[in-house]
Each structure stands twice: as structure tokens, then as C-alpha cells.
Amino acid sequence: MGNGIEGKVVVITGASSGLGEATARLLSAQGAFLVLGARRLERIVALAGELEAAGGKAIAIKTDVTRHGEVQALVDAAVEAFGRLDVMINNAGLMPLSPLDRLKIEDWDRMIDVNIKGVLYGIAAALPQMKRQKSGHIISVSSVAGHKVRPGNTVYAATKHAVRVISEGLRMEVKAYNIRTTVISPGAVDTELPDSVTEADVAEGVRKIYELAIAPASFARAVVFAIAQPEDMDVNEILFRPTRQEF
Fold first, then answer.
1. Which of 22, 99, 117, 231 has the least CB density, counted as fewest CB within 10 Å?
2. Mean pLDDT over residues 230-241, rounded?
3. What is the pLDDT of residue 209?
4. Is 1 a domain residue?
């Protein structure tokens, strides 16, 4: 019996570090064909090289998820290289937290562009191919903040709640095409995400929360679980935290 991963063509945005990198490594080890997208081309080229040297198959495409054309080019590259698209992982995200009264409007715009529009662009790029195949799996990354709002994370929480709403709406709309949808909401995971916080006092609070962060491999295992299920099982939502995380 197969592992449900081997031979599947998987596109990952935000693949240059953290959740995306860890997921690429685990999926490649289980036989998936990887198409890695990120703005930091040198990192994903190096990662693709490592995966190939270990016997895997991977290509790297420079991708800014705030540009629909670049996300479409990423998916097109996957289909051209491997003939199909089995899984689209909308992973790219950022978290410049701040209280609303600081009016960090540029940060708000960046979160909306990456965290919401980036997911929508990923869906827009992947969906036509998956409809033609009558199969596929779209995985999008939310957050514990998509379930809970706290002072200082209002806009970030709103974007991550939007990801959950988009994924649920998509789930209901694609049943006729045998497409599965999953939204994964991590708690504190050891990634570069806290580095996007621009306010010094807020960053200090985030660092304290992230002292109990768990490894990115935790997220990768959740992805593998969702993908590896039989085609008649659709894992729609996974919420996980470090065991010690209260929020």
C-alpha cells in the first residue's frame, strides 16, 4: 500500500524557510514532487538542490504571492514540469502586529496583500487545473489567531479568519470536481514569522510567547496527515498548538 504522498505534485508558496521549508523536506522524503515558490530565490534554489541530491524531485520558481501573474506562473511551471497539480499549499504569510491606534496602515496593507490576496491568487491559479483533472487538494495556512482575537493582533487575526472563511467557502464550491480543501491553524511554531513584527514593544511580547514554540516539522506532519488520507476523506481543518501554549 502506498503512503498517499509518493508521486504527488505539490506546489508550496513561502517555501524559503519555516513551515514551507520543513514541509518541502518531509514531503520530498516521502516521494512527492515539489515546486517551491518564494521571493528569496537563492534559498529555494538551494533547497531544491538539496532535495534533488537526496534523490527527490524539486524545482524552484521565484514567486511574490502579491502578484497574481507570478503565482500563476508557479502553477504553470508545476504542470509543465510534472504534467499535473495534486496539491497547492498556500503558506506564505506575515505578521506585523500592532494596536490599531498606531495606524500602521502599510503593515495592514501588507497583511491583506500576502495573507488574504496571496491565498486567493493561489486558489485562482490552481483551481482551473484541478477542475480539469477532477482531482486536487488546496491547503491554506491560517493561525490560532484565526480563531482568537487579542489586543494588538486585530488585523492579523482578521486576515487569518478570512483564510478560514475562504477555505470553507471553497470546500462547498468544489465538491463536483473531487477537490479537497484543508485549512491548518498553527500556534507558536519556531519560524521567522515573529521577525515581521515592526513595533518593538509588541515584538517583545511575541518573543515571550514564542519561547515555547515547537519545531516547524509539527506543521509538516499535519500537512502529510491531510494529504495522505484516502481520496474519499477530506480533512477540512487542523488546529494545533504547543502543549504548553494557553492562547
1. 231
2. 96
3. 86
4. no
